[in-house]
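Sample entry (90 residues):
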Amino acid sequence: MLNVVINIVYFMLSVALLFAFIRLTKGPSLPDRVVSLELIASIVVGYVGVHAIDTGVSSLLDVAIVIALTAFLTAVGFARFLERGGRKSE
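Predicted structure, serialized as tokens:
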């Protein structure tokens, strides 16, 4: 029964990743693209978490935490970049 649920979750994450990638390629503005990259990073964390449950390797959860923290710091850095007005033309 657990294998069926894991396969359904993998399928749902794949569909979500497909939609996020479409949004990334067709995003009208840069903030929309950054949000979709953040969503893709969250989906990857989900993949790693489900894979950790599937295989029973608990050290993969550490990898998921590192990916999540890196994505969070990237989002914070981009928000600060936009807050300061973006690129400065000299």
